[in-house]
Amino acid sequence: MEPVFDLVPIWAGIIGFGIIMYVLMDGFDLGQGILFPFAPDEDARGVMMNSVAPVWDGNETWLILGGAGLLAAFPLVYSVFLPALYLGVFLMLAGLIFRGVAFEFRFKAKTSRYLWNWAFAGGSILASFAQGAVVGTYIQGFEVENFRYVGGALDWLTPFTVMTGLGMLAGYALLGSTWLIMKSEGYIQDWAYRITPYLLAALAAVFVIVSIWTPLVNDDVRSRWFDQVSLIWLLPVGALISMAVLLRALKRRDEGMPFVATMGIFIFAYLGLLFSKLPYIVPPTYTIWDAASAHESQLFLLIGLLFVIPFVLMYTAWTYWVFRGKVKAGVGYH
Amino acid sequence: MELDPLLLSRLQFAFVVSFHAIFPVFTIGLASYIAVLEGLAYKTENPIWTRLSSFWTRVFAVVFGMGVVSGIVMAFQFGTNWSNFSYISANFLGPILSYEVVTAFFLEAAFLGVLLFGRGKVPPGIFLLSAILVAVGTFISSFWILSANSWMHTPAGFEFRGELIYVTSWLEAIFNPSLPYRFAHMGLASFLTGGFVVAGVSAWYLIRKREVEANRKALSMTLWLLLILTPLQTWVGDLHGLNTLEHQPVKVAAMEGNWETQSNVPLLLFALPDQENQTNRFEIGIPNLASIILKHSADGVVPGLNEVAPEEQPPVAWVFWSFRVMVGIGLLMIAVAVTGLVLRLKGTLWSSQWYWRVLQVMSITPFIAVIAGWFTTEIGRAPWLIYGVMTFEQGLTPSLQGWMALVTLIGYIVVYALVFTGGLYYLMRILRDGLEYQAHEPDDEPSHRAKRPLSAVDVPLEEGA
């Protein structure tokens, strides 16, 4: 029985959308944790945490949905990526759990607060680095045979993936600092304005290194970008323009624009990455069609998702709307 | 020493899932109790019900939070350690597990927020509706998980095309033969867990003469509930066992310590199963009783472990003793519930301090029984991951090495120990503050409060803070 229409691209779109939603939203709250040790004082840390407190766990549910959604729609991705990234996944989960617990207890603690600060910062840094290494591993590709991962335990930890891991730290920190510009005021906002150009410089440096390195280590990527000049060159141009917009917005001390421009950088970089690789989803061997589950299985879950996702998006939007505006120092402590 | 990735992965999964299971089994029961309290509050307008409900909602928030944190790992563990299993069965398991996540997602987004933060801010009818829908939602969530689990015990509605499993009938696969029994058995277990914890905590407050009127009400209604549910659970458990006898006879043989297919099988009260020699040592049993329970006649023939080769038998001692721990606690629960009725009829329930102390101790027993029950059913299907279809070994991640599994096993133990210590310590603070605790209204705009489960509770973490 031939399906009436192909659900695979639809599911690729859903998962792709889920991933960028997760990266943008959990990115700015992981960013608070990365910047935590460098914050000017304890009040500033309070504001940083409060600025993401109402939304961070909603942000992380996208990760769980992504994990389960991959198992349902692209089981091959699930069953190759997780064994290949075995230790990285553990570090990421441990990091996320630590910072989740720290989030709850820092508010309720007084004498032990410094401990929760460390747990929050350490967990955020660990999780962010691991996510960057996942991106690097995806670019590197996976050693597979007969639909199984057959590579080693530490293939995901190479100089290249360490570089992408550091890049993710810089990127999330940038999302975090521009988010903070939007949500804070006074000396905390001044501090965020001050550090943002340095974070942007770090991110741009990683971009340059990765952009030169990737075509050198990966023939497929090189031929896609250099064999003939095509429209995909618009994507890095978009990322560059976003960076320029960010710099201009910082100079004019815009409050919302820096965050918007940073999201732009992420989106263009993400699309650039996708167009370097698609339709290969387990590079360099398997395409999205090789990795897809049965048509009936994709359809069965799609029906439920079409019902729930609009609802979740509305609820998410409403939460952000309720918590709009500046976070004041000292508020939210009990 | 050679590190066996298979053994370590099984230990890791057992550890994570046992640790995780104790939270939802409690919150599912507690959610229904809160819904009942809210219903009473709505109907009678007696403020005592509202106070009880507020208190138990604080407990619910913390336990729910710990359940979420400990559950995150499980969404990834199928892939990290059991990637062959995930890959081969994904056409069924993927959508089912996703539906569980989606249900929880939906529930949290919609109704949990209202239950935790909406008191006094939404109309009472809406608030009651949210409490009910949270309770219903927890059941729907557990339905999906138990469907996936039951399918691994009694797989149905599928076929192999090449090496992959394809669903031929969603209805048959989801409502597979052991699902109704497992779902009923677990649902009752959740109620019993919630019931014994509420009874134990109320009794503890009564011993300390705190909030006597409210806690008497809570204890009284809970004891009625337990009086009905404890025997009912025995009956449902028995049906579940008969269903297992039909589909997984070797598991039942291990539960009974019955090595050979025979008639007039005794019910063993004590034995040391000796797998190597395929026999028991130091047997103490009641003649014919196992045959009577399983086949409803003294000379009923019960299948034994010798139906399969020794390497296809589960580790008998584990199954045998886990089962006895579960049943023993179940019988103890009936005795405690009936004692409550006797004391009530004698009119001495509110003066029997010793009984309150018993209830206090009983509050941890449902957790032990639940874990022992899961040990029985999960170890009892060994060596099968999907019964009769795929062994543990076939389901394991091919690239997994022993040291990797060991590192993450130790890692998860450390992480969970820290989370659990923190959570339990905080829970104790909430219990100590009790019903008397008055939340001081935050001075900021209430709608700006965080909407996370744990932030519904503002009891400070440290002493005197």
Describe the overall structure.
The complex is a heterodimer of chains A (334) and B (465). Chain A is 76% helix and 3% strand. Chain A contains 13 helices and 4 strands. Chain B is mostly helical and 465 residues long. Chain B has a domain at 24-176 and 401-465. Helices cover 68% and strands 6% of the residues of chain B. Chain B has 14 helices and 6 strands. Chain B has helices at 5-44, 47-81, 83-117, 124-153, 170-174, 179-207, 212-247, 249-256, 289-295, 316-346, 353-362, 365-379, 392-395, 402-433; strands at residues 158-161, 164-167, 267-274, 279-286, 384-386, 390-391. Chain B has a two-stranded antiparallel sheet with strand order 1-2. A two-stranded antiparallel sheet of chain B has the order 3-4. Chain B has a two-stranded antiparallel sheet with strand order 5-6. The longest helix of chain B has 40 residues, at 5-44. The termini of chain B are far apart. The interface between A and B is large, with 69 and 68 residues.
Summarize this structure briefly.
The complex is a heterodimer of chains A (334) and B (465). Chain A is an all-alpha fold and 334 residues long.
